[in-house]
From TrEMBL:
It comes from Streptomyces flaveus. This is Lipoprotein. Residues 68-80 have a biased composition (Low complexity). Residues 1-26, 47-98 are annotated as: Disordered. Keywords: Lipoprotein.
Amino acid sequence: MAKPSAPRIPSLLLTEPMSHGESTVKRRPLPVAAALAATAALLLTACGSGDDSSKDNDKIAGADTGDTETSASPDATDAASRPRVTLPDDLSDNFESWKTGDTTQDAVLADVARRVDATNYAITEGNAKLPALSFYYSGTALADARDWVESIVKEGYSITGTNRYYNPKVDVFDSSSAGVVYCEDQSKAYAKDRKSNKVHKTAVTSNSYVLYTARLEKDKQGVWQTTKLTSQRGHKSCTP
């Protein structure tokens, strides 16, 4: 995040796997080919195949973003006892084209959306120890998420506005592991000073659009937890 004179909206991840915060780790933009190769390498970790992953990632651009936005709320048949996550009235997470028609893929995407909501909820609550984080993250991804939330809170910021998530691509590796690539549009989301409630708006640029790559593993409750997560700002797959 930039300094108060030129604040930037906090995002879930702004760097490679080392950290979530721009304020702690310098980002290293990758060429498109290298980014897609890194995506495939992450998603296929511990998996036996996935030759079509890079092809799927190439198809992200140009998808219709006008579809009806979907909610991340659990289905009635969901057996997991999930923590309560309620975003404040001034913050919305909108998920476009978040249904595929495939039961497993839709379950994966639903938990990605819940994880996004949980992270933004933790930021607005100013609490990096919220149970919702450990419910939807595990391993190094959980530690990184907590560090990221804590860094934003320490800098005196919260978030407000609308985050739009779109163009999801799911690859189910087996019964307990999957990979997801998706985009975020932060052009209508802003940093908000926690004390004064002042909203800091900045110009929309290519860096307002973020490409995310996630690996998920299914736990004993049937929850698809994010175990690895990377991001790249300004990737051409996500920019208009």
